Amino acid sequence: MIADTVLTDPSQWIGLQAALDRMVTDRSVHIPGSHRDPNESGLLRTASRRGIQSSEYAKVLNNPAMRTELTTQMDEASK
User: Fold this and answer.
1) Which of 33, 45, 58, 73 is the most exposed place for a label (fewest CB within 10 A)?
2) DSSP state of 29
């Protein structure tokens, strides 16, 4: 079952997150209540790779030092 594979294989999470990010940031798809900054999805992905739970994500965004660190990691990863 696909759901079992995604839930038990962390390597599948990144692809799933990328697909969800494309849905949310694609202007042709409207998801009610989604007014996200395109950079925010990358920060969320980076945060999730570092083991930061989504409930902690808002705290990360509100912490300038942590946000800068995550942005730096994203820049380094994209090189």
Assistant:
1) 33
2) S
